[in-house]
Fold Sigma-54 factor interaction domain-containing protein.
Amino acid sequence: MSNTATELQKTRDEVNRLVHNWQTLLDVMPEMVFLVRDDFIIEYMNRSAKACFGDLCSRSCCDDLRQICADCRIFTPEESDAASATTAHKLTEAVVKGISVEYSAVPFIGYTGEQLIMIVMRDISQRKLHEQEISDFNTNIEKILEQKIAELQESEELRRRLSRQVNSLKNQLGFHHRADKMVGSSRAMRELREMVHQVARSDATILITGESGTGKELVANLIKETSNRADKPFLKINCNAINDSILESDLFGYEKGAFTGATSRKKGKFEIVNGGTIFLDEIGDISSRMQASLLRVLQNGEIIRVGGTEPVKVDVRVIAATNVDLAKAVQEKKFRLDLYYRLNIINIDIPPLRERKEDIVELVSHFVNHYREAFKKDIDFVPKSIINRLLLHDWPGNVRELENLIQRAVLMAKGKMITEQDLFFDQNKFGIDGENRSLDVQSRIGVLPLKGILAEFEREVIEQALRKFKGNVSRAATELKVGKTALYDKMKRYNISAKAIKKGVA
Ligand SMILES: Nc1ncnc2c1ncn2[C@@H]1O[C@H](COP(=O)(O)OP(=O)(O)OP(=O)(O)O)[C@@H](O)[C@H]1O
């Protein structure tokens, strides 16, 4: 063989080797490879492509492949290889003969100058199926969640409706919380109870208003008992009972050396009661200095001890009560507007007894039972005529006045029932200043033990002293030569209200 023939044979072998390798390479590729001419005839398909679509070589492209080729731009020789490389890497999704595929298509000029398009394609139907499943699942989950949320909202609304119904039924049936010592099922009292139950559980400050003797302290007790702080400390402070500087150090504590006698730091009630509730009675009477300190507690939840500068954080719920018209006090510049707003977040106003006379019968029966037990009396009957008489009265001293009247009547009653003679209406019998007041000792002998009669006297003396000094407790204490705190204790025991006396209603 000549040298040329040998060289030719070598070249042919090399070409065959390369063709064989390329074909093998293309056939082992998992991707499908198509070579399509510009007249849309398929010139080549590798093994994967044939396995998926069947052998379509030398046949015209289906519409889907045609579309792929039509979308594929031929690059001019001037355009860089980089441009065609970018196109080759751009993966596009399509559906070919019903099969979801991902492909890249590269146009190029063939060996003899013909225009060809190589399409490299991957079957993604499995992946699509999974994607669809996940998307269906998400949509379903969303739907299920939406449905569940709607169901929950519905049942929450139902729960609220039922709870409202239960509350109103409880009210109608006269159901009382075990801590509810308030007697009365008039509409006003039912609404009052409902309001207490609605607001008790929040930590909001509550202002209880109402005339003297309407039961503000009872309402404060009920709020505390039905609140989230029921088992936490509860302190009641009568802001009117102690003078201003004592009240301030009592409530906020003091630092060592704050004043003469302050030998060591002392915590105030707000710190002691931390986590619990403070009931500030007669809040309308506090000084402007106290008003500022109280505003700090309500606004920032902190106090400053007397003589100190460092604020101390406290967590105390405040319930305040007053029979002063605070709005008027604000207008008269006696009470700070900002404090009024802070206190008045929730206002529970207790109507006077004359506006809910339906409660009188229940109250009478309650007090008769109570004092019959206390005085060991046999009374088991209150005639209709007596009830009618009580219904005619206007009760300026409210429930306290009614309670005092029944207490006296039970004490005075000789038989098993209360009679007209046992009724002592304060204003009628004694006059407002009580000048003609005197205790009928004879009628008590044999009815009460000595201790009881003396207690009656003590009560009379205190009431008369308070009347004499127009409800000024300090003055009465000085004149009677007893401590102010002791006098307050006795007034509490005998249910005497200095305020009511000041107003001339007790
Ligand atoms: N609804 C009620 N049921 C039973 N007792 C009541 C009721 N309302 C008030 N009382 C009684 O009347 C008396 C006065 O009530 P309370 O001290 O709560 O009134 P108040 O409005 O705080 O009076 P003040 O403003 O003078 O301090 C108490 O002995 C209380 O037990």
